[in-house]
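Methods, example record. To illustrate the input and output format used throughout this study, we show the complete record for L-rhamnose isomerase. The sequence lines were provided to the predictor; the line carrying structure tokens was produced by it.
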Amino acid sequence: MSVQDNFKRAKEQYEKWGVSIEEAFEQLKRVPISIHCWQGDDIGGFEVNQQELSGGIDVTGNYPGKATTPEQLRSDLEKALSLIPGKHKINLHAIYAETEGEVVDRDQLEPKHFENWVKWAKENDLGLDFNPTLFSHPKAEDGLTLTNPDKEIRDFWIKHCIQSRKIGEYFGKELGQQALTNIWIPDGYKDIPSDRLTPRKRLKDSLDEIFAADVDESLNVDAVESKLFGIGSEAYVVGSHEFYMGYALKNNKLCLLDTGHYHPTEVVSNKISAMLLFSDQLALHVSRPVRWDSDHVVILDDELREIGLEIVRNDALDKVMIGLDFFDASINRVAAWTIGTRNMIKSLLYALLLPNTHLKQLQEEGNFTDRLALLEEFKTYPFGAIWDYYCEQMEVPAQEKWLDEVKSYEKEVLSQR
Ligand SMILES: C[C@H](O)[C@H](O)[C@@H](O)C(=O)CO
Ligand SMILES: [Mn+2]
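The corresponding predicted structure is encoded as:
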């Protein structure tokens, strides 16, 4: 049976419930996923004085063929994008600056150091997001950046974050698409602190100084990313969820929820509706924690589907800025991007195909039997037939056909590196 034939039969089943496939497709096409560049080179970046990856973050695996130059990374991203339906954004870190062989420290970075990325984004009809890099640097060696007791170090990182927001603003201006500049810092302590408040006061003051710099919010929006624990900050992280949720609410910034940054049984899907009651927008780093914040490639598991459902059933497709954040160096990195991003888009389509109004009504009526029965039965509705058709309509390979293309790219390009 062809993709078209399967689609026709599947469409009938969904339309029985009043679901408009065409409307679902139109909504889905409008959702940009922010695809993280750092899966392509194991968060190495292109600084002239490239540093070892350090500062509460690590990548495992050594699959051959990783990108080592901006041109290679952009080529690999183009390959992945050719296998992913829709128009998306690429999420950059400051360490991906191109300074033409000149040593430029992070507090001196400027928009011009990302001109090649902007030119490439224009050629490929992409948006760009940004992140200051507050790790893998001598001034982050003791694991303290914006909260460091040494004011000189704090000022260096404050300046870096201000410059980063200006780079985000430059992206927004050049590409006509608001950029998200997200701040994550590794600051915390390996063991039990004697003072949790002072570092948090310093973080608040540092952020106040960073956000006092004048940046056009229509071009760049700011997010702050919380974490529960990290490597070397097992006992205490300054930028906890409570800290950033409070800071973001009070200062009209976006709180960024990384799905790997909570207790193992705590799910981000359950936070979205509550936070959107008090904030116009929020941001996500969709990842997959296995036992801890392991940053595994995103799979279509229950939590990913629940995130898709919460975004769709709360009419929040334009309120939640969906970013991905995983880095697996044990598999082909182009395949990793393709698997994770296609799964994120699948989870949104899955949610768009449910009769969400009817399901809400069942809950309102206290009909929890039908609610459970239908939520379970829809898990085995022919969603795959709709997804395959969507891929073909968007001119990307359906089913696992994309894998052949990755294998050919590996043979012709990656294996030659
Ligand atoms: C590279 C990113 O800034 C990093 O993964 C951050 O978003 C994070 O989640 C750290 O645990
Ligand atoms: Mn993250």
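Annotations derived from this record:
The pocket of L2XQQQDX (ligand 1) is lined by residues 38, 43, 57, 131, 184, 225, 227, 258, 285, 293, 325 (CB under 6 Å).
The chain has 14 helices and twelve strands.
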